[in-house]
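pipeline/complex-builder :: batch 7 item 3
reading input block
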Amino acid sequence: MKCAVIVFPGSNCDRDLAVAFEAATGVKPVMVWHRDTQLPDGVDLIGVPGGFSYGDYLRSGAMAARSPVMQAVAEAASRGTNVLGICNGFQVLTETGLLPGALLRNAGGHFVCRDVALTVENAQSAFTSRYAAGEAITIPVAHHDGNYFADTQTLDRLEGEGRVAFRYGERVNGSMRNIAGILNESGNVLGMMPHPERVIEPAHGNTDGRRLFEGLVEGLLARA
Amino acid sequence: MKARVFVTLKGGVLDPQGRAIHHALEGLGFAGVNDVRAGKLIELDLADGTSDEDLDAMCRKLLANTVIENYRIEKVA
């Protein structure tokens, strides 16, 4: 099992994500700098972490999406490698075109930093297999640009293909259809605004995020 | 050669920044402001002979996210 966490200038959840990967796999992830053009050989899982890559210049995730390492991430994703983008990582994945739509400024104009209720919409994906469909979980968010936007056709397609992984159980940021996390067409790329890596230990007060990492690793081991 | 690229949010896209500016204008007592939309102006200093195709590609590949934004290029002599 080999995992990598991408690090951009301005990433700030990279170490938390590495801890979550290590807790689930027992192996320390390789931290890959944004200027690198290659990922470690045989990488099974790539994390694109939260933070404020490149200071959110131009648009959140816009500069990071054009950094050399993202070309390698896109190639790995097209070969079926699992890619998990959290918060700024989700913004980077939409800017890269690996996921459809865009994340706009929160409708209320405020940075939202609190626990939110989520519903697991698709419990069949590589990322959600340890949850039950329709299960209510609590995961914290911390973002200014989490307002998911896509045209009606794209939204209908996401819903029809079971690609909405998580939905907010309450109004959080104005996201269309309360979308909190989506999958790509082949189901190996997940982008989500909430931070599962922040709720993996009892000391965090909640462990609802832990099963995402455990399920992911379980699936990867079964496939290996 | 200089060019200015104006990036604006597409019609249906919510603009909380524009709305906040609108409220602030009303707070200052300016009546009759019907709507405010905020955008970006990006000024480029380009080598002479930069092609229109390249300039357009710069907008599509980086300066604007065409999922949510429109862009308009204005060449300045």
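note: Chain A has one domain: 3-223.
queue -> next item
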